[in-house]
Amino acid sequence: MCGIVAMMSREPVNQRIYDALHLLQHRGQDAAGIATLDGLHFHMYKAMGLVRDVFRTRNMRDLTGNIGIGQVRYPTQGCASSNQESQPFYVNAPYGIMFAHNGNLTNAAELTQELYETDRRHINTTSDSEVLLNVLATEISRVTQTKSLDAEGVFEAVAAVHRRVRGSYGCCAVIAGKGLLAFRDPHGIRPLCYGTNVAEDGSIEHMVSSESVTMIGLGFKVERDIAPGEAIWIDLKGNVSVRQCAEHAELNPCAFEFVYFARPDSTIDGINVYGARLKLGEYLAKTVREKLDLSEIDVVMPIPDSSRPCAQQLAQELGIPYREGFIKNRYVGRTFIMPGQAVRKKSVRQKLNAMPVEFEGKNLLLVDDSIVRGTTMREIVRMARESGAKKVFVASSAPRVMFPNVYGIDMPTKSELLCGDGKDEAAVAEAIGADAVVYQTLEGLKGALHDMNPDVPRFDCSCFDGVYVTGDITDEYLARLDAARNAPVAKPAPDEEGDEAGEGKSTLA
Ligand SMILES: O=P(O)(O)OC[C@H]1O[C@H](OP(=O)(O)OP(=O)(O)O)[C@H](O)[C@@H]1O
Ligand SMILES: NC(=O)CC[C@H](N)C(=O)O
Ligand SMILES: [Mg+2]
């Protein structure tokens, strides 16, 4: 779940793109990059690491220009540890295009072959984002064979991209000498919004971003979400054109954004993420009431950070005291999006520390937003018991994660999911060492999100219900992903369990 940002102004944009990436850090911790356009010249700097570690003053100084894009990466295809696959990506024809992508293509392998054989384009990495950029470049080339590039031509090219590409994509691109483009996939799986700011000289500045928090943080006004299938084109004079470029577009935002990925202070497709998490707590309270004996629970306790709003609301609904027993080391990042199981496991203990005073002799209801691989909960339950807890109950604000995700969350195989084999609540409790486990129901998840915005027709809940909104996901495709994920790698890192199984390496299928 990467984060992308684009900006156009009369002033330099480098520092503000940096600040925006900082605000999107929770969406990708592996690599970061910024590209700017100064006249007809692109400047780019990208590297592995967190935003604050990647960019030095000298790098920032070189990023001159008034238009730019940036990306923080959480890899879902290609190589997790390759600087080359960090973004933005660049092609020199037509015109010169810089490109950033959030999402995951499900026909990248077919497109790679098609690009080589039909379009005579070579893809030199295993990143689906490079594939997507080359499809866009091919289609812009096709349009400009007979005319020069204008808004109409750009929209024609994006329409052709929608016809060729499958999967999820929120994208932004700078075309040298022409303007700034952003577009969202026809299913609206990944978020993308647009905002403006009136600069000191009265001119309008433009921003496109994965999440509205960047706009709030940088003093921009959030204008609106970019609709599924829609493209927005801002030419060098600042003229804005918007067009629906997909034949069939339907909004299916990813439910996992609201459960875990997005920042609580963002609003996506009309749903405030914090509000959604409170609502999830309300629905979860109903299930907890049905399944557990409340008189047995002394305190409700969140697993920092993402579960806090849900746990607070749940405690209030149930009338049980809310207590913070785990202290988070603020210098450790999110563990779920780290590459490799060994590092994730180690990080849970480094990240969270239990305070015995909140555990000794107590019966706890631990609340997390999700239990995916079970890495966090296994460790947490053990820590709670070591700290003197009597009974440990667990509640998850998301339903059981039972199916692979192919739209931008790096869990493409069932085998890595705790409930991939269909474990019921009792089996999960046994696996993580808890006395009992309660999950949000699927109806609860959908109900909570629907309550927040009844106008969203459907949410992508594929990892919970196995329904893939793009309609192209077959068992054979999932088997190919599984085989690629579990293929032995040439030189496994000695202490990386996950990497031995090929995790974080090529999953292009
Ligand atoms: O079952 P698992 O595979 O462990 O995944 C689920 C856990 O990972 C995430 O936390 P993370 O530490 O990434 O971030 P957070 O601080 O935002 O909660 C999520 O909030 C759960 O706690
Ligand atoms: N999580 C994402 O959005 C990943 C983008 C792209 N698929 C990559 O692996 O770099
Ligand atoms: Mg967490």
UniProtKB/TrEMBL annotation:
<dbReference type="GO" id="GO:0000287">
    <property type="term" value="F:magnesium ion binding"/>
</dbReference>
<keyword id="KW-0460">Magnesium</keyword>
<keyword id="KW-0315">Glutamine amidotransferase</keyword>
<dbReference type="InterPro" id="IPR029055">
    <property type="entry name" value="Ntn_hydrolases_N"/>
</dbReference>
<protein>
    <recommendedName>
        <fullName>Amidophosphoribosyltransferase</fullName>
        <ecNumber>2.4.2.14</ecNumber>
    </recommendedName>
</protein>
<feature type="region of interest" description="Disordered">
    <location>
        <begin position="486"/>
        <end position="509"/>
    </location>
</feature>
<comment type="function">
    <text>Catalyzes the formation of phosphoribosylamine from phosphoribosylpyrophosphate (PRPP) and glutamine.</text>
</comment>
<keyword id="KW-0658">Purine biosynthesis</keyword>
<feature type="binding site">
    <location>
        <position position="368"/>
    </location>
    <ligand>
        <name>Mg(2+)</name>
    </ligand>
</feature>
<dbReference type="GO" id="GO:0009113">
    <property type="term" value="P:purine nucleobase biosynthetic process"/>
</dbReference>
<dbReference type="InterPro" id="IPR000836">
    <property type="entry name" value="PRTase_dom"/>
</dbReference>
<feature type="binding site">
    <location>
        <position position="369"/>
    </location>
    <ligand>
        <name>Mg(2+)</name>
    </ligand>
</feature>
<feature type="binding site">
    <location>
        <position position="306"/>
    </location>
    <ligand>
        <name>Mg(2+)</name>
    </ligand>
</feature>
<keyword id="KW-0328">Glycosyltransferase</keyword>
<dbReference type="InterPro" id="IPR029057">
    <property type="entry name" value="PRTase-like"/>
</dbReference>
<feature type="active site" description="Nucleophile">
    <location>
        <position position="2"/>
    </location>
</feature>
<feature type="domain" description="Glutamine amidotransferase type-2">
    <location>
        <begin position="2"/>
        <end position="237"/>
    </location>
</feature>
<comment type="similarity">
    <text>In the C-terminal section; belongs to the purine/pyrimidine phosphoribosyltransferase family.</text>
</comment>
<dbReference type="GO" id="GO:0006189">
    <property type="term" value="P:'de novo' IMP biosynthetic process"/>
</dbReference>
<dbReference type="InterPro" id="IPR005854">
    <property type="entry name" value="PurF"/>
</dbReference>
<dbReference type="InterPro" id="IPR035584">
    <property type="entry name" value="PurF_N"/>
</dbReference>
<dbReference type="InterPro" id="IPR017932">
    <property type="entry name" value="GATase_2_dom"/>
</dbReference>
<dbReference type="GO" id="GO:0004044">
    <property type="term" value="F:amidophosphoribosyltransferase activity"/>
</dbReference>
<comment type="pathway">
    <text>Purine metabolism; IMP biosynthesis via de novo pathway; N(1)-(5-phospho-D-ribosyl)glycinamide from 5-phospho-alpha-D-ribose 1-diphosphate: step 1/2.</text>
</comment>
<keyword id="KW-0479">Metal-binding</keyword>
<keyword id="KW-0808">Transferase</keyword>
<dbReference type="Pfam" id="PF00156">
    <property type="entry name" value="Pribosyltran"/>
</dbReference>
<dbReference type="Pfam" id="PF13522">
    <property type="entry name" value="GATase_6"/>
</dbReference>
